[in-house]
Design a protein that fits this description.
Distance between the termini: 82 Å
Shape: elongated
Helix content: under 10%
Order of helices and strands: EHEEEEEEHEEEEEEHEEEEEEE
Largest sheet: 20 strands, antiparallel
Oligomer: single chain
Strand content: over 45%
Structural class: mainly beta
């Protein structure tokens, strides 16, 4: 049997398959066998070729090919390959043509233009999405590779695997190479380990993020733990919308959780070449906890020209009282 110029969307619906990330026209040739017109005995094998475009994003032109075997309600994809000018993906595994189209197989992907990943960020909260989108735009020479196990069960699609990105940049700063072990679905992203090495910024993070926080409004929507070094404080205000009256490169250890509108947890930090309230300092470091309704300043130390000032107290949010204790010794706080 053969098919020429068939619609990929119509064929997917006919077979009960999940929506494909591409849309276009299919060509197919294969052999089919059935006993007494009983669909349960259907066996087949064949090849397909596709020409079309990505369904979302910049809708780049894409070509593809694949080999398959079919036995009853089980479709075995020996290999399916998609390629555009900037990205490619390969899948092999099994797809159930019943039971809601369950899927299990290996997915590999690579891209030489990170902007093709932008559509996958659309469902992230703004505070998470903004820095990632900026990194994609600022890394024209970067590349990424992803390999993992793709599973669709009970209608939920999950990818568990590892991502590696090289030559990342942000606002002219070399971020270096990123490695991440992750599990991602339509409702949740979990990272067992994310590391950034080889550049001017280092990062070591683990945590999780709920992509549908409304389903559990009374609980946490994220948790993140880790450390960062060399991060420019000027990056924070555009991402968070919160003015930061300080300059310098920050090193920090953090353990944060909660909801985007109420972040709780603890941060220990220090600044390299600090400038606070337009005043250059020799050193600045401290510890604080984010608590309901405010910030608990456990300790903060600033030093300049042999003098030092220390602070602790509580800073209330949304008009709540601010109570901070200061202790200074031989420091001139004028620019």
């Amino acid at each position: 049997a053969s098919l020429s110029d068939g619609s990929s969307d119509e064929i997917s619906r006919l077979l009960g398959l999940p929506s494909l990330p591409v849309t276009g026209r299919l060509t197919h040739s294969g052999e089919y066998r059935m006993e007494a017109f009983d669909p349960a005995t259907l066996e087949a094998r064949g090849d397909v070729a596709l020409s079309g475009r990505f369904r979302e994003g910049v809708r780049q032109a894409v070509t593809g090919s694949g080999r398959f075997r079919l036995a009853g309600s089980a479709l075995e994809v020996e290999e399916a390959f998609l390629e555009s000018s900037e990205a490619s993906a390969r899948f092999s595994g099994k797809i159930a043509l019943s039971k809601g189209g369950d899927v299990e197989g290996t997915l590999e992907g690579s891209a030489g233009d990170l902007t093709v990943l932008a559509p996958f960020l659309a469902h992230l909260p703004a505070a998470t999405r903004a820095p990632l989108e900026e990194i994609l735009r600022d890394s024209p020479g970067a590349s990424v590779e992803i390999k993992g196990l793709l599973v669709r069960a009970a209608g939920d699609l999950t990818l568990t695997g590892r991502a590696e990105a090289r030559a990342l940049e942000l606002r002219g700063t070399r971020l270096g190479d990123l490695q991440a072990d992750f599990t991602a679905s339509s409702s949740r992203v979990e990272v067992a380990e994310v590391s950034l090495t080889g550049g001017d910024v280092s990062l070591d993070v683990s945590g999780w993020l709920r992509l549908q926080p409304g389903a559990a409004a009374s609980g946490d929507s994220f948790a993140v733990q880790g450390s960062v070094a060399g991060m420019d404080l000027s990056w924070l205000e555009p991402w968070t919308g919160i003015p930061v009256p300080a300059e310098g490169r920050m090193t920090a250890e953090f353990d944060l959780s909660g909801r985007m509108e109420e972040v709780l947890g603890r941060v220990e930090w220090s600044l390299e070449r600090p400038v606070i309230a337009s005043i250059p300092l020799e050193s600045a470091a401290g510890k604080f906890s984010l608590v309901p309704g405010g910030l608990l300043l456990e300790e903060m130390g600033l030093s300049r020209e042999g003098g030092r000032v220390e602070a602790s107290g509580r800073i209330g949010f949304a008009g709540a009282p601010i109570l901070v204790h200061l202790n200074g010794d031989g420091i001139e706080m004028e620019g």
